[in-house]
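Dear colleagues,

For the upcoming journal club I promised to circulate an example of a predicted protein-ligand complex. I picked one with nicotinamide-adenine-dinucleotide because it came up in last month's discussion. The inputs are reproduced below in full, followed by the predicted structure.
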Amino acid sequence: MKILVTGGCGYIGSHTCVELLNENYEVVIIDNLSNSKEDVVNRIEQITNKKVKFYEGNVQDETLLKRIFEENKIDGVIHFAGYKAVGESVKKPLMYYENNLESTITLLRIMNDFDCKNIVFSSSATVYGVQESPKYVETMTRKETSSPYGTTKSMIEKIMEDLYYSDPTWTISLLRYFNPVGAHSSGLIGENPNGIPNNLMPYILKVAIGELPELTIFGNDYETPDGTCIRDYIHVVDLAKGHLCAITHALDNKGKLHTYNLGSGHGVSVKEIVDTFERVNNLKLNYKFGARREGDLPEFFADPSLALEELGWKTEQSIEDMCRDAYNFIIKETEK
Ligand code: NAD
Ligand code: UFG
């Protein structure tokens, strides 16, 4: 079976390619390298000892997409390509709507033309918005999101649902990720954003290696046990395995629309992440408590029971594993 992975050179895409190849899927990647490097392809091949077919280009490029579908008999698509920085999306909304929506619509159109109607999409817990309970269940309705980035995810979910209702021969899996962190245990692939990171773990890593002086924990006056925000952190390899389960299930159960939470089901506070990172890596992090970050919710975590029931998937790796693997990756990156 041959899977087209859009954005396959990125953080979650690269880990998913590894899991697909390990299960003997053939992998074709399209990535325009706007937030990744081509060397990731070599690293995926090094980890798996398998070959990947790589096309450098934009998913909005219809001609290139047609060529990919002509040159490869694609059985399913996992669609990661898109911009993902919440803060940047507030400043540059058009850039986000254009890239995330146009690439998805172009992709769906070409898939339809080639009668390849099986897609797994990277959605996000952000589509839940603010709910009455912090435990998010797929049956909850999508609410107002906190950023244009989040809105692109909600809009794409809606577009895909409408497509399915218009033509139920499509197989569509909307995967709502919670907070992916960690890296492959080889240390060859992981997340190392350019500039000052927005997300917690990449920021911790830059402080740990001395590239940034200090972490600010945004708020310690929330109504949580230690006053810091609670999230559902998921090891990126567990998340990648979730994609493997989703595409395998979709290939066996055609003509369905699925929505799954991919999270551990456990809330962990920012302070607990910092303490665990220090303990497992045997180091001290420079950090202080600061003001709350605008738009942050005090607490949310997944109800992952549907993914367990239907896909047989659940997380296996601990917060300790996430902290250890993330640090191992950044140390190897900086040694290069
Ligand atoms: P990433 O930026 O590391 O990977 C995205 C990849 O897509 C990059 O390699 C980038 O070069 C590529 N890309 C972007 N636009 C493209 C285009 N138009 N054509 C071709 N390639 C393009 O991000 P990630 O963390 O791996 O996230 C993957 C997906 O998961 C994204 O859609 C993101 O919104 C979603 N997601 C991520 C998180 C998270 O916390 N990382 C959480 C929820 C959802
Ligand atoms: N945090 C800090 N200091 C930092 C960075 C983050 O204390 O320097 C805290 C945040 O306040 C939050 C927690 O760490 O409490 C996690 O923050 P992240 O930025 O890592 O993740 P978010 O939960 O804010 O963001 C995630 C995804 C987005 C998604 C968003 C909304 O990364 O894709 O959830 O659901 F849009």
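Two points we might discuss: The mean pLDDT is 97. Residues 84, 86, 124-126, 150, 179, 198-200, 203, 215-218, 229, 231, 270, 293, 296 surround UFG (ligand 2) (CB under 6 Å).

See you all on Thursday,
B. R.
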